[in-house]
Amino acid sequence: MEEVLKLEGVSVRFGGLTAVHQVDLSVRKGEIIALIGPNGAGKTTLFNLLTGLYQPTSGIIYYKQRKINHLKPFQRVKIGIARTFQNIRLIKSFTVLENVLIAHQSCNAEKVWESIFVTKKVKKKRIDVVNECIEILKMVGLDHKIYEYAHHLPYGEQRLLEIGRALVTNCQLLLLDEPAAGMNSIEKQKLIEIIKSLSNRLNIEILLIEHDMRLVMNIADRIVVLDHGEKIAEGTGSEVRNNPKVVKAYLGEEKEYA
Q1: Which helix (H) or strand (E) holds 256?
Q2: What is the spatial distance between Cα 245 and Cα 240, in angstroms, rounded to a whole number?
Q3: Are residues 160 and 203 located together in one domain of the fold?
Q4: Euclidean distance between the first and final Cα of the chain, in Å?
Q5: Cα(97)–Cα(161) distance, integer angstroms
């Protein structure tokens, strides 16, 4: 199966601290991969490497067979990599629709003269962009709240709005950093359905960090486990759940996650 993302021996060090050490990882076409591990395991650091906020100290990151080690964050968005954050980073004084519009590439590509002399062509383009954004919001269940201010949304819907904003960049690889954090059980079930729907409908790859093991076991094709910056296990839900290293480092006593 085609590898969309591939990490070979990737490490990152901050002074004398090694945050990620010799990690090999791949995301294949159409997969949903979960990245789990205890706090401080290096999960978010790995996301920051993938999105260009950090540069690897050693190793190579490939995206669609292209080495992307030195690409800046905005360049990685342009080639199809987008993310959400562990701490919500919406513009709270903007509406739901405005928060998505600002991430649409066409909104940032309009020339000065086009903004001054608004032709029929420009008007149509703007309408098309708005309709695209509304369609994305429909996918995450927020199309009925497009004119509501972001800070008025419940916490779970703010997280869904972040996913919508990432999707409108036309990404192929979507990175979700703890998307279920702060959600109740009903919201988490809705999130599972949305992520599966996005994977199938948009044919995109999804890599997510998550601590809710019930959610992980119900959604991930494969699970990668980090501990102290190193990959200690990889496999299906049942393989990871029964791995002694994972049980010792993260899961503790065996539980029922189905």
Answers
A1: none
A2: 9
A3: no
A4: 27
A5: 9
Give yes or no: residues 184 and 258 share one domain. Answer: yes
Residue numbers of the domain that contains 108: 91-169
Domain boundary among 135, 152, 169: 169
What residue ranges of the chain have pLDDT lower than 50? 253-254, 256-258
Into how many domains does the chain fold? Answer: 2
Residues 172-223 pLDDT 10s: 999 999 999 989 999 999 999 999 999 999 999 999 999 999 999 999 999 9
Q: Is residue 85 part of a domain?
A: no
**pTM (whole model) above 0.70:** yes
Phi-psi region of 240 (alpha: psi -120 to 50; beta: other; left: phi over 0): alpha
Exposed (0-12), middle (13-18) or buried (19+): which is 89, by Cβ within 10 Å? exposed
Spatial CB neighbours of 48, under 8 Å, sequence gap ≥ 6? 54
User: Which among 129, 147, 169 is the end of a domain?
Assistant: 169
**Ramachandran bin of 98, using left for φ above 0, alpha for ψ from -120 to 50, beta for the remaining angles:** alpha
Provide the residue type at 140 as one letter: V
Q: Where are the alpha helices (DSSP H) in the chain?
A: 43-50, 73-79, 96-101, 112-116, 120-139, 155-167, 185-202, 213-219, 237-241, 244-246
